[in-house]
Give the backbone structure.
Amino acid sequence: MVTIEDVAVRAGVSVTTVSHVVNRTRPVSNELVTRARSNG
């Protein structure tokens, strides 16, 4: 199973950023959204 930490490392972003992308709790740039989603 892939963890949020795995996604963050592969995308080169923080765990917090991945969390915001998944939960849509804060605005995240389109670039970071794309990186996080393509590495999960």
The mean pLDDT is 92. Residues 4-38 form one domain.
